[in-house]
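User: Can you help me understand a structure? I only have the sequence.
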Amino acid sequence: MATNSFGARSTLAVDGKSYTIYKLDALEKHGFALARMPYSIKVMIENVLRREDGVIVTKGQIEALARWNGKGGEREVSFMPARVLLQDFTGVPVVADLAVMRDAIKKLGGNPDKISPLQPVDLVIDHSVQVDSFGTAGAFAANAELEFERNQERYLFLR
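Assistant: Let's start by predicting it. Here is the structure, written out as tokens:
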């Protein structure tokens, strides 16, 4: 059950649609000085405000983070990002691990669909592109075709 200990939850209307937002200035009204905090800490504070439920994320955790002093080690915080971005060097092993776990669950008679990330994940396939053709109107198409031929196995696996 969502909690709103600091009254941070608000609504933002854009083009006729309403969105739930969490305002950091609500914490400032409770005496927390956030103006000079690093942006990364503000992102974490917004995250715990959004996820406050009194169990996994408590009012005390939010207060501890809002008192952040840069020295670290004060308290553990339950941070859950809304999205994960993985570059292919780290992302491909994650995809491979998920595939292996799904196969294992299936062999044990379980439902492989239960092996999924809790958060959306964007996987960026970032690698060098060879240029075999240039200076012609069809150069892009020729290079793209060769790219897919060279990496077909990789792309099929990731798909």
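Now, to help you interpret it: The first strand starts at residue 9 and ends at 14. DSSP finds six helices and four strands in the chain. Let me know which part you'd like to focus on.
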